[in-house]
Amino acid sequence: MAKTYKEALAETIKNTKEVFKFMWNHKMGKVGIIIFAFLLVMALFPQLFTKYTPDWTSDQIFVPASWEHPCGLDHQGKDIWTQVVYGARISLSVGFMAALLTILMGALVGTVTGYYGGIFDEFLMFLSDSIMMLPSLLLLLVIASLFSTVWNIWYTIIVIALISWPSTARMVRAQTLQLKHRLYVEAAIALGASNKRIIFKHILPSIIPLLFARAAVLIAGFIVTVASLTFLGLGDPKNPDWGYVMYTANKNMMIIVMKGMWQWIVVPGVMIALAVIAFVCLGEALEDYLNPKLRER
Amino acid sequence: MHMKKSFASYVIIKLIHKLITLIFVILLIYALLRLAPGTPFDQYLYQGKITQEQYERLLEEWGYKDNFITGAAKILYGMFTFSLFKMKSPVYNKPIIDLISIRLPYTLSLVTAAYFFGSMLGILLGLYCARNRGSLKESTILWVVLGIRALPVFWLGMVLLYFLAFKLGLFPYLTTSELEPQNVFHHMIDWLWHSFLPIVALSKIYAVSYLLTIRNMVTEEYTSDYVTALRAIGLREEYIVERHVLRNIMPPVITMMAIDLGFLFGGAVVTETVFNYPGMGTLIYEAMWNKDYPVVVASFYIIAVAVIVAITIAEITYAYLDPRIRRG
């Protein structure tokens, strides 16, 4: 009973509408959607929020906030608010890509080890145990500082994924082990379905919704992780994110105190907090959607 | 009799597994260090303070030219005989033990204070939320927590430093005391006053995570069928909480607390950097920039051992409290 492309698309749209409706009626979901929409507009159309470009420099430096420059000018004479607005794009996309890569790795490792088991499973679970044994931020910090001469934003994304896949893999593996013994999967095995077919047709479709909820939580965490890394001076100055603005603020703390430029410190942090709140809310709402037992509370 | 034997073998298998993991982790760190470009002597060479010949000799002398197997063997030997800590740091030209013994007490006092303050606050508020579930009080607390959870620790540190230390002058902005301590009590108060802001910034992580976990676990118990049944037979609410709910959530909470205790160092690095706190975090951070292999490896050795000991204690306690685990 093969579905045509059109039918599948129509069904996806219907499902998406249903999820959106549920989220909009969910308190946290609504907050998440509103903040996320705001940040998305900022990332896509930064020109709407500031009349300067990130490369614009004044001949004055360390100028306190005014109507012209809501957060003041930094140590290079750049407009800080513009840096924050254009940073949204980088912070959000890095968080998003790192989460995507983590989910892909976790799902791959989790389904394969859960489904096939054996020595492969033992080895990968040992590897994930070992990685989980080290504080992830510290490990990321070590790798970033050791390779600081060649570091750029793509390394950040890849290394975050390499460090973070174990928890997702464990979750997917546990789910796969459960699903493997469900009657409908056993029936498919009895009917002689190939392993590939069982994984893609019967096991993955039940796990994918869970991965969406997980991705939202991961993005929230990764935005802070990336900001912490750049805050410690291990970012990519060519792609300044919110953490980078705070890195320069921390470097010039004494001047900030003397001139009372508190906006330089506060505003980028508020943006990070807003992004985290948005993704945590979206994740909670999705989880409630997927787990009806929780909805009653 | 049979029970005892299986419990012992469970512990032994766990310990062997952990030992292999420890060796693997240290080798991984060492491999990363070897792959990274640069040595601590590069800057002297660039500044012209040493000749190429002297540079080569320094590399030879400090083991930067060993092949991977020899270097790894030295590290592993050092790990098991603890001579790792007697190795000298090429940057400070001091034995590692001297560096770590100054820094470790700072970090240990900071993280334990933050951990206990944060987790106790989180557990109490989490229980309060679960008892008042569905009320306005609970939802207010949860929304506030959502906001606090989203604040990055380093940002919280900077804001506290700017407003409370620099602007209002309530706390010192130097985290080490410049006074000579007169007695133990004076020393304690002085330390607390100087470390208060980093403790607040760091304890936020624990407060939030414990509050949410405890609240979710207790709420799950409250809505489960057995509690409904206990209520139906007319038992008092306090009795149900003390005898059944708390007892059921005890094993996972103890596990979580033990595991967190091991991970304390990780969170400390960022906080220490913001406050210029002279702990292990800043030591590791500087050592990484300087490619100071022995210090990085020794620090990670301490961290990995702390995590492994904590996780092992957690697993054994869990298995002891919940017999289903060791059978499965």
Structural overview:
Chain A is mainly alpha-helical. The mean pLDDT of chain A is 86. In chain A, 76% of the residues lie in helices and 0% in strands. With 328 residues, chain B is an all-alpha fold. Chain B has a two-stranded antiparallel sheet with strand order 1-2. Chain B is 78% helix and 1% strand. Chain B has helices spanning 2-35, 42-46, 52-61, 68-81, 96-131, 136-149, 153-167, 184-222, 225-232, 237-275, 280-289, 293-321, 324-327, and strands at residues 88-89, 94-95. In chain B, helix 1 crosses helix 4 (68-81), helix 6 packs across helix 8 (184-222) and helix 7 crosses helix 10. The two termini of chain B are 19 Å apart. Chain B contains 13 helices and two strands, in the order ααααββααααααααα. The interface between A and B is large, with 45 and 53 residues.
Please write out the topology.
The complex is a heterodimer of chains A (297) and B (328).
Chain A: H1 5-25, H2 27-44, H3 80-116, H4 118-132, H5 136-146, H6 153-180, H7 183-190, H8 195-231, H9 242-251, H10 253-259, H11 262-290, H12 292-295
Helix pairs in contact in A: 1-2, 2-3, 2-11, 3-4, 3-6, 3-8, 3-11, 4-6, 5-6, 6-8, 7-8, 8-9, 8-11, 9-11
Chain B: H1 2-35, H2 42-46, H3 52-61, H4 68-81, E1 88-89, E2 94-95, H5 96-131, H6 136-149, H7 153-167, H8 184-222, H9 225-232, H10 237-275, H11 280-289, H12 293-321, H13 324-327
Antiparallel strand pairs in B: 1-2
Helix pairs in contact in B: 1-4, 1-12, 5-8, 5-10, 6-8, 7-8, 7-10, 8-10, 10-11, 10-12, 11-12
Question: Top keywords for this entry?
Answer:
heterodimer; A: 297 residues; mainly alpha; globular; B: 328 residues; two-stranded antiparallel sheet; 13 helices; 78% helix
Compact description:
The complex is a heterodimer of chains A (297) and B (328). By secondary structure, chain A is mainly α. Helices cover 76% and strands 0% of the residues of chain A.
